């Protein structure tokens, strides 16, 4: 039967019946997926490996969230600066942030935003040239050193000593640049995610040039941040997190993002 013949005849009843038949056959969608932006401010692996080709664990996890929703949601990564991301949060725009921690977003008691269950555990590693092999024992152990931070990042205890003139702070635009500078002994120490640091160390074969302190700068959990009024979305993401051990794509993510 042709599509036009379904609409032949008069009356609303036949039209409703025809539309119902089309929907049951999958020819007309009952509802389009709700678009959910995934705001990504990381520019480094393993979170973003190749933005043009949508490679990296942020893209991988966004695809998992879309697929598991069975057409309810469509999650798409939007890369942007941290400043722009904060503007969107403050404007109460719809969107989520993956791999976040409540302390980084000025929400110590988790009351400003909704926070998912834990996605992964991570550490911030203290990295120095192999010739220095610095063992981190708190911010005081960096006195007199050239500390290489990432532009726009705030390191509370270290920056306090920077303000007191006890640590000299330099800045790199990216984590990749920071690691290369430390490896070439143009700075004494840097700090950033163990996952990103080990990715770059392996990629650029810097194992014989870098020393990772046995004590991390910080250990923390990474969550998904959801706007405070998005309770259904928050519940959905937590439901997916409970399913992750049985999702093969998640096993690929944890393989890519481990410390080895």
Task: Describe what you observe in this structure.
The protein is α/β, with parallel strands linked by helices and 260 residues long. The protein has 9 helices and 10 strands. Strand 6 (146-150), helix 5 and strand 7 (168-172) form a beta-alpha-beta unit. The relative contact order is 0.17.
Descriptive tags:
single chain, 260 residues, alpha/beta, two-stranded parallel ribbon, 10 strands, globular, disordered N terminus
Explain briefly what this protein structure is.
This protein has helices at 3-6, 12-24, 57-68, 82-90, 156-163, 175-183, 194-203, 231-243, 248-256; strands spanning 34-40, 73-79, 96-100, 114-115, 120-129, 146-150, 168-172, 189-193, 210-212, 218-226. The chain is built from nine helices and ten strands. Helix content is 33%, strand content 22%.
Main sheet overview = 8 strands, mixed
Number of strands: 10
Mean pLDDT across the residues is 89
How does the helix and strand content classify structurally? Answer: alpha/beta
Poorly predicted regions are 1-9, 22-29
Instruction: State the oligomer.
Output: single chain
- The separation of the N and C termini measures 60 Å
* Rg (CA only): 24 Å
Strand content: 15-25%
Fold blueprint:
Layout: H1 3-6, H2 12-24, E1 34-40, H3 57-68, E2 73-79, H4 82-90, E3 96-100, E4 114-115, E5 120-129, E6 146-150, H5 156-163, E7 168-172, H6 175-183, E8 189-193, H7 194-203, E9 210-212, E10 218-226, H8 231-243, H9 248-256
Parallel strand pairs: 1-2, 6-7, 6-8
Antiparallel strand pairs: 3-10, 4-10, 5-8, 5-9, 5-10
Helix pairs in contact: 3-9
């Amino acid at each position: 039967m042709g599509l036009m013949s379904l609409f032949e005849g008069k009356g609303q009843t036949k039209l409703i019946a025809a539309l119902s038949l089309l929907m049951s056959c999958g020819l007309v969608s009952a509802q389009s997926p709700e678009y959910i932006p995934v705001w990504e401010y990381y520019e480094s692996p393993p979170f973003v490996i190749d933005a043009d080709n949508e490679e990296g664990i942020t893209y991988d996890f966004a695809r998992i969230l879309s697929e598991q929703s069975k057409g309810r949601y469509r999650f798409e990564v939007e890369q942007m600066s941290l400043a722009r991301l904060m503007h969107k949060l403050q404007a109460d725009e719809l969107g989520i942030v993956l791999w976040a921690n409540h302390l980084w977003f000025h929400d110590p008691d988790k009351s400003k935003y909704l926070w998912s269950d834990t996605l992964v555990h991570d550490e911030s590693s203290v990295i120095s040239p192999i010739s220095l092999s610095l063992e981190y024992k708190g911010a005081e152990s960096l006195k007199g050193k050239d500390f290489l931070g990432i532009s726009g990042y705030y390191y509370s205890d270290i920056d306090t000593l920077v303000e007191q003139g006890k640590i000299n702070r330099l800045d790199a635009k990216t984590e990749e640049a920071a690691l290369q500078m430390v490896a070439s002994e143009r700075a004494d120490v840097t700090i950033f995610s163990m996952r990103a640091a080990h990715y770059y160390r392996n990629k650029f074969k810097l194992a014989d040039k870098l020393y990772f302190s046995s004590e991390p700068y910080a250990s923390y959990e990474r969550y998904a941040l959801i706007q405070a009024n998005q309770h259904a979305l928050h519940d959905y993401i937590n439901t997916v997190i409970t399913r992750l051990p049985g999702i093969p794509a998640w096993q690929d993510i944890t393989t890519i993002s481990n410390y080895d």
